[in-house]
Amino acid sequence: MVRFLIRVAVFVGSAALGLFLASLLIPGFHVHLAGFLVAILVFAIAQALIEWLVERIFHRSSPTVAGIAGLLSTFLALWIATLFTDGLSFDDVGAWILAAVVVWLTTALLGWLAARFLLRPRGAEQQR
Q1: Cβ-proximal residues to 31 (8 Å cutoff; 6+ apart), any chain
Q2: What angle do CA 94, 33, 74 make, to 5 degrees?
Q3: How many other C-beta atoms are found inside a 10 Å radius of the C-beta of residue 13?
Q4: For residue range 104-115, what is the model confidence (pLDDT) as tens digits?
Q5: What is the spatial distance between Cα 48 and Cα 56, in angstroms, rounded to a whole number?
Q6: Which of 11, 38, 53, 92 is the most buried (most CB within 10 A)?
Q7: CB of 29 within 8 A of CB of 23?
Q8: Would residue 25 count as lying in a domain?
Q9: For residue 127, how many other CB atoms are within 10 A of its CB?
Q10: What total number of domains does the chain contain?
């Protein structure tokens, strides 16, 4: 149960950081403070559901397919978050694409770091 809660915290935290970084780096991507928390939750839920669906469809595919599917699910999750909240907005399609790449890279990197350092398999400390 603790590992699950750590995964949820890392997932939501990396989504928040990715959205914040995208708002700083991309001029046409805007995060509005009033709806930011709701946008994070909507994005995280949409991302989790889309990733689960993609994983079920492509469960035996190569890591390349998984990476592309992750990027596409980030595009969709950003679009869904803009539909249901006022916390995110895009000026144009280019900002949407760049924001998806920044958010995807951030969540992928932080997810990998969390798996590497926070979510080690039991007994991994003894093998060192």
Answers
A1: 19, 20, 22, 23, 39, 87, 88
A2: 40
A3: 15
A4: 999 889 888 887
A5: 12
A6: 11
A7: yes
A8: no
A9: 7
A10: 1
- For residues 82 and 93, the answer to whether their CB atoms sit within 8 Å is no
pLDDT band at residue 123 under the 50/70/90 scheme: low
13-67: per-residue pLDDT in tens? Answer: 888 999 999 999 999 999 888 778 888 888 888 888 877 787 777 766 666 777 7
Residue 68 and residue 81: Cα distance in Å, rounded?
20
Partner residues linked to 31 by β-bridges: 88
Q: For the chain, where are the alpha helices, taking DSSP H only?
A: 2-25, 36-57, 63-84, 93-117
The two beta strands, 88-90 and 29-31, are: antiparallel
Specify whether the CB–CB gap between 83 and 26 falls below 8 A. no
Q: Would 80 be classed as within a structural domain?
A: yes
Q: What is the mean pLDDT of residues 70-82?
A: 86
User: Domain for residue 48, yes or no?
Assistant: yes
User: Taking the model in full, what pTM does it have?
Assistant: 0.80
